[in-house]
Specification:
By secondary structure, this protein is an alpha+beta fold. The protein has four helices and four strands. It has helices at about 25-45, 70-75, 100-105, 120-130, and strands at about 55-60, 80-85, 85-90, 110-115. A hairpin with a 2-residue loop joins strand 2 and strand 3. It is elongated and about 60 Å long. The structure holds iron/sulfur cluster (2 copies). One iron/sulfur cluster (SF4) binds near residues 68 and 106. One iron/sulfur cluster binds near residues 59, 67, 107 and 109.
């Protein structure tokens, strides 16, 4: 029997889907997918370090008011609260962050910045573009 395998990769890095996590399917396909998912996970685990993009978000904990808006909007699960001496603060996992900047738009205190795309840098790009007109 020819079994057409579905991809096991997920939108968030380091997560792999197999079996009924996709949809109901036969046992043979489930087992094949599980092998595939385990293989993909092993590929990641075989590296001593993980290289992440440079354009990821970072939280200025002094400005974070612990509202949770960034955590709610991040579809990659890249932000979580951590307990610090200053109280509960949001923190970004740079390996999971995709740099889409959604959390930036929701933060009421501008505590989260996307590296290389902060307000000053974007304004400079706009100024430079219009200076040529
Ligand atoms: S930039 Fe996108 S992926 Fe990264 S923490 Fe913000 S919402 Fe999540
Ligand atoms: S949205 Fe801003 S203030 Fe609210 S938890 Fe996230 S970083 Fe902190």
């Amino acid at each position: 029997m020819l079994v057409k395998l579905r991809p096991v990769d997920f939108g968030a890095d380091g997560m792999f889907l197999a079996g009924a996590a996709h949809y109901p399917k036969f046992m043979s396909e489930t087992v094949s997918q599980a092998y595939g998912a385990a293989g993909r996970a092993l590929t990641l685990l075989s590296h001593d370090t993980v290289v992440a993009s440079g354009s990821v978000c970072e939280v200025d904990e002094n400005r974070c008011v612990s509202c949770g808006a960034c955590i709610t909007v991040c579809t990659y699960g890249a932000i979580e609260f951590v307990n610090t001496p200053q109280g509960r603060k949001a923190r970004v996992n740079p390996v999971l962050c995709k740099g889409d900047g959604l959390c930036n738009t929701k933060c009421p205190t501008e505590a989260i910045i996307l590296k290389h795309y902060n307000n000053e840098e974007l304004q400079s790009q706009i100024d430079a573009a219009f200076a040529e007109l």
